[in-house]
Write a structure and sequence with these properties.
Blueprint lengths: L1 E5 L3 H12 L3 E5 L3 H8 L10 H10 L3 E4 L3 H5 L3 E4 L15 H13 L4 E5 L7 H12 L5 E5 L9 H6 L4 E4 L3 H10 L10 E4 L1 H32 L3 H9 L20 H14 L5 H24 L8 E5 L15 H10 L3 E5 L4 H7 L3 E3 L3 H5 L4 E4 L11 H7 L4 E4 L6 H6 L3 E3 L4
Parallel strand pairs: 1-2, 1-4, 2-3, 4-5, 5-6, 7-8, 9-10, 9-12, 10-11, 12-13, 13-14
C-alpha cells in the first residue's frame, strides 16, 4: 500500500519507518526543510535505538522517502496519517489541535480517489468528527473515511512496540476503512496481534484511558513509597508482592521521582479537561496530576535533607536528565523541576546524560554539563541519580567514592542496594526503602 505520514516527529517517523519495513511505500512529510534534508541524508533528529538503521535501509530500498510538500504524497496515497503534535494548550491545559485541523485542510485540498485519513496523533474524543467535518466542508464530493488509530509506543522501545504490539486499536465507522486498515496491518497477523475495531470516539478515548491508568499506577506506588519510608518497609518488596497478582501486574510499579515525557503529563491533563467539560470529572486522574507535580518538587527537598538540610555552596552531581533511559526526550522530565529547586537552595549543579545534554542545555541554566559519570562526580559533595540509564547501574563504587569530596548519594531510581552502598562508605538515600 502507499502511505503518507504527515509529521516526522517521534510518532510519525517511527510509524513511517516501521510501515516501510513491513513493505509498504511511505512518504513522510514535514514542513521543516532542515529536518527533511537531514532525514534524506541519513540523519535522525531524535534518539531512538535502531531507528537510524531502519530509516537508512528503507530509504536505500526505495520504500521510504521524505518531502516538504504533501501534495504528491497525499494524491498517491491509499492511507494518509495525521501524526502532528498535540501539545497542551497554554492557559487551559486542553490539547492544542490546531496542527491536526491544519493538516486536515491541506489533505482535503489535494486528495484524489478513495482515501483513508487516519488520526495517529493523540486527540480528545470527537476530534475525528471535526476532522471529517473540515474535509467534507472543503470537499463535498470527496470519497474518504476518517479513522482513529492511536499509538502505544514507549520511547526507547518504540520499534519493538510497533512490530510486536499488545494490540492495534482502530476506530472506524465503515467497512471500507476497516478493510484498508486490515490490509495495512496484515504483516502483524503472523504475530497473532489482536486487531481491535471500535467506534471512532471509543478508539480516541482508549488512548487517553490507557495513559491515565498507567500514570495513576506510577503515582500510586510513589505514594506507597512515601509510606514505606515512614513505617520502615521496602517499596520494592511491596511492589513485587502486589505485582505478582495477575489482576494487577508488575509493570509501572517502580517507585521514583514522578512521571514525565511526551504523553502522560499532557494526556492526563487533556483527559481531565475533557471530562470536566462533559460534566463527569475524573477525580482520580485530577489527583494523579496534582500528586505527580508535587512529587517532582519534593525530590529536591529529599536531596537537601540527605545533605543535612543545607546545600548552600555545595556541588551536586546529577546523573540522568531525560525523563527515562534510551531517549533524548526532556519533556516534563523530573530533572527540570529538581535541578532548579536545588539551584534556588544554593547548590551548584554538574550534570551528565548519555543522550539528553543537547536538549538539556536549552532548558536548564547555569548547569555544567560534562561527558561522563566520573567526570560528573569529581569533587562533588553529593551525587543524585535521576534517570536509570544502563551505564549507571554498575558504576565502580570505589572510583566514585574516591572522586567525590562528600559521600552523599541520593538514588531516586533505587538502582543500588543500601547495604552495598554503606560498605563503600556512602551516606545513601533511596526511595521507599
Amino acid at each position: 500500500m502507499r502511505v503518507a505520514m504527515i509529521g516526522t516527529g517521534y510518532v510519525g517517523l517511527v510509524s513511517g519507518a516501521c510501515f516501510a519495513d513491513f513493505g509498504h511505500h511511505v512518504t513522510c512529510v514535514d514542513k521543516n526543510e532542515k529536518k527533511v534534508e537531514m532525514l534524506r541524508s541519513g540523519g535522525i533528529p531524535i534518539y531512538e535505538p535502531g531507528l537510524d538503521l531502519m530509516v537508512q535501509r528503507n530509504v536505500r530500498d526505495e520504500r521510504l522517502d521524505f518531502a516538504t510538500d504533501l501534495s504528491d504524497a497525499v494524491k498517491n496515497a491509499d492511507v494518509v496519517f495525521i501524526a502532528v503534535g498535540t501539545p497542551s494548550r497554554r492557559g487551559d491545559g486542553h490539547a492544542d489541535l490546531s496542527y491536526v485541523y491544519a493538516a486536515a485542510e491541506e489533505i482535503a485540498s489535494v486528495m484524489e480517489g478513495y482515501t483513508v485519513i487516519v488520526n495517529k496523533s493523540t486527540v480528545p474524543v470527537g476530534t475525528g468528527d471535526e476532522v471529517e467535518r473540515i474535509i467534507r466542508e472543503r470537499r463535498p464530493d470527496g470519497d474518504f473515511s476518517v479513522v482513529s488509530n492511536p499509538e502505544f509506543l514507549r520511547e526507547g522501545a518504540a520499534i519493538d512496540d510497533f512490530k510486536r504490539p499488545d494490540r492495534v486499536v482502530v476506530g472506524a465507522e465503515d467497512q471500507r476503512a476497516q478493510a484498508a486498515m486490515k490490509e495495512l496491518y496484515r504483516p502483524l497477523y503472523l504475530n497473532e496481534t489482536p486487531l481491535l475495531f471500535t467506534g471512532r470516539r471509543t478508539s480516541e478515548l482508549i488512548k487517553y484511558a490507557a495513559n491515565a491508568f498507567l500514570a495513576m499506577k506510577i503515582t500510586f506506588i510513589n505514594e506507597i513509597a512515601d509510606l514505606c519510608e515512614v513505617v520502615d518497609a521496602n517499596v520494592q518488596e511491596v511492589a513485587r508482592g502486589v505485582g505478582l497478582d495477575k489482576r494487577i501486574g508488575s509493570k509501572f510499579l517502580n517507585a521514583g521521582p514522578g512521571y514525565g515525557g511526551s504523553c502522560f503529563p499532557k494526556d492526563t491533563l487533556a483527559l481531565t479537561k475533557t471530562a470536566e467539560e462533559a460534566g463527569t470529572p475524573l477525580k482520580l486522574v485530577e489527583t494523579t496530576v496534582a500528586v505527580n507535580d508535587a512529587r517532582k518538587r519534593a525530590m529536591a527537598d529529599k536531596v537537601v535533607k540527605a545533605m543535612g538540610g543545607d546545600v548552600t555552596g555545595k556541588t551536586i552531581a546529577v546523573l540522568g536528565l531525560t525523563f527515562k533511559p534510551n531517549t533524548d526526550d526532556m519533556r516534563d522530565a523530573p530533572s527540570l523541576d529538581i535541578i532548579p529547586a536545588l539551584q534556588e537552595a544554593g547548590a551548584t549543579i554538574r550534570a551528565y546524560d548519555p543522550a539528553g545534554i543537547v536538549e538539556a542545555e536549552r532548558l536548564l541554566d547555569n548547569v555544567e554539563f560534562v561527558s561522563g559519570p566520573y567526570l560528573c562526580s569529581e569533587g562533588a559533595d553529593a551525587l543524585v541519580i535521576i534517570t536509570e540509564w544502563n551505564e549507571f547501574r554498575a558504576l565502580d563504587l570505589d572510583r566514585l567514592s574516591q572522586s567525590m569530596t562528600g559521600n552523599v548519594v541520593v538514588d531516586l531510581r533505587n538502582i543500588y542496594g543500601p547495604d552495598d552502598m554503606a560498605q563503600h562508605g556512602f551516606a545513601y538515600t533511596s526511595v521507599g526503602r
